Amino acid sequence: MSLEPIEPDTALELYLADKGNELAEASLEAHEYRLGHFVRWCDQQDIENLNNLSGRQLQRYRVWRRDEGDLSPVSEKTQMDTLRVFIRWLETVDGVEQDLSEKVLSPDITPEQNARDVMLDSDRATSVLAELEKYHYASIEHVTIALMWHTMMRVGSIHALDIEDYYPDEQYLKVRHRPETETPIKNQGDGERLVALSDDLCELLDDWIESQRRDVKDDCDREPLLTTAQGRPCKSTLRVYVYRWTQPCRYDGECPHDRNPAECEATERDHLSKCPSSVSPHAIRRGSITHSLNNDMPDKVVSDRANVSQEVIDMHYDRRTERERMEQRRDYLDDL
């Protein structure tokens, strides 16, 4: 095969142009951000032509990116999986040697790391919600995932919401513990609270209620905010929505795991969690909490809004790196 010389920045430009019609804008921006680090590394290494890129160089980049970005294994996996998709695309345009993408290594995530570190980061959350807004606006899947991301609620709290718990004029939701009618919430009475909503989220809820919500009652004669033909969707159904829509092939049009979506077992309802990239509702909660902390929402506000103690946030939810924490503290130095 005869390769055609191509510079890293040109390759990225062509890749983004090619994917522009396939990916949602948010997904495209996420790819540009992640691959921008690779282009920057190539510049530092004086790599001007990707034709000669080798597996050894890709491994050196992996180590550099892990150290330079202070990445957790989960974040490193996201970065390298995107790079593998990019290298695979380069193979199709004679930019690199065939099968080079198979030499892009990515960390294996252990169950312990999965329980502690996996989260839906803000880039992926934006991509998922952009896809749902564009093609499935105000569907129950769209509303469910938007509520999880923007309110930091546990799946049990969202499951427990009735239409009367939504106050559109005042723009808030009332989370209530009602075990006698089959919707207990974690922390019971201590978990009851008012959750403020943004203009955009209220607009989505209003459109859901106006055009999509089924006017049905549950088995306890209550009117759920989220409904299906059978009444209130069970919590396992809400989890299915999350596992399905956090699969990259759903919102990105690409599988970073070299699988054919048409044949992949993980696209079936009973096996959605078998996709290595799909996440649980708890990972959305963790990602939302970390995103809020990264955007300088005070710890106390996050604690109250998410109904979780500061100690638990520090131990289980806050996935900011030490460098990110340092840079946020630096922002306050000028005020001293």
UniProtKB/TrEMBL annotation:
Keyword annotations of the record: DNA integration, DNA recombination, DNA-binding
MF term (GO), any: DNA binding
GO biological process terms, semicolon-separated: DNA integration; DNA recombination
PROSITE patterns: CB (PS51900), TYR_RECOMBINASE (PS51898)
Domain Core-binding (CB) positions: 6-91
Membrane-crossing segments per the record: none
Annotated Pfam families: Phage_int_SAM_1, Phage_integrase
Name of the featured protein: Site-specific recombinase XerD
Domain Tyr recombinase: 115-331
